[in-house]
Each structure stands twice: as structure tokens, then as C-alpha cells.
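Course exercise 7: structure representation. Students receive a sequence record and must write out the corresponding structure in C-alpha cell form. The form below is the worked example handed out in class, using Enoyl-CoA hydratase (244 residues). Read each field label carefully; the graders check that inputs and outputs are placed in the correct fields and that the protein name is recorded exactly as given.

STUDENT ID: A-19
EXERCISE PROTEIN: Enoyl-CoA hydratase
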Amino acid sequence: MTLIGITRARGIATLALDSPGNRNALSADLVTELADALTACGKDPDVRAVVLTHSGNTFSAGADLRQPPDPAAFVGLLRGIVELPKPVVARVTGHVRAGGLGLLGACDIAAGGPGTSFAFTEVRIGVAPAVISMPLLPRLEPGAARRYYLTGERFGAAEAVRIGLLTASGDDVDETLAPILDGLRAAAPGALAETKALVTARVLESFDRDTAALTALSARLFATAEAREGMTAFLERRDPAWAL
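STUDENT ANSWER:
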């Protein structure tokens, strides 16, 4: 089964997460397929930029707890987005949770439509937003990162723009994206690649410095009794034992 829909038009390759049955959860298969599609786009001279979007009402619910990706593969996907020599633009019209926010943070530009919502829900299932911090913390407003990491609260598109998670939002996400994509089409490919390298250098420093430590932290937390209880409670649609 294909989990990534691919279309091309006027130099833009659109990759759509297409597993709405599990809210586009980041399974091992989806992560592998998305990484392969991005690599192909990076090598295609006819692709000027990539739009990353989704089917259904959820961009991504985060890690698939039934078929989780290998941590190294997920880190490789996030770094691959940042290192891709083509700009990657997120188009969001639904909900984004946990690891899905890592995908969003790795993109160069992100636009949201009405009805979008965001939440770092890791603490509510007994883990932490570890590896996704590498693309996110260099870009998020620090006070907001502290608040939303620690509380798991939901917030909307306007707040996501304010804190640096989204670049823009509007009632019609495609109208919002139109001038952005036109600008990318007008850019020289070589200059675009070099300019992307300039603006992603600080994020890549985070990957170079923190990948080993944060991957180990993620693995340790997922093996704890708290995480087992949190994930079980999530799958059983009940409150975890620690909820007050």
C-alpha cells in the first residue's frame, strides 16, 4: 500500500501523507517511503521545491505506537528534510501532534489553514519531545517552547505563527502559499540551494551536536514504566494512572 501520494506541477512536487486511517501516524513504513520520495525529489532537476501535505483531517498524529519507526530512521528523515537542496514547504489543514511537529519544524516554510491545531503531547504519554527538538528548538520562541513542551496544551494557527512554528496562516491555505511558491519558482536553482544551506546551518549544528544524546534519551524514556502506561492508556482511550 502506498502511504505517500506524489504529484508534480510547474516545478513543485507535492508529497501527501496518505494514511488517514491512523491519522497519518509515523509508522516505520511511512517514514521510509517519505524519506525515499524526498531523496528522489532532491535529485530531480525538474523539481524546484517540495510541498509536504496530507490527506484527511490530521497532518500527523506523531509516532505510530503499533509500528513505530526506528529512531535512527526518523532522525534521518528529519535531517534529510533540512539538508535537502530544495526548499520543503509544509501545507497544513488539520491537526499536528508530537512527532508530526518534528516534520513541520524540519520544513523551511510552513503554512496553516483554518481548523489547524497543534500540541506537543509527549509528556501526556510519559515521554519527551526529544529528537524533534533538533529542528524545533532553534526556531521556536523559547518561552513558548517551555510552555507547550511542558503542558501539552493545544494551540491554533495564530499562536503557531507567533511562536515560529508556522510561517503564515490564512483562511485559504492555498492562497496563502501561492506567492511563496511563485517566489520559489522564480529563484535560480543553484542560488536556492546555497541560500537554503545558509538558513538551515544552525539547525544542522543541532543535529551534529545532539543526535546521539537525544536518540538515547528517547529510547530510554520509551522503555520506562511510565511510557508503557501512557501508551497503553492512549490506545485504550483512557486517562493514564497519573492523571489527576
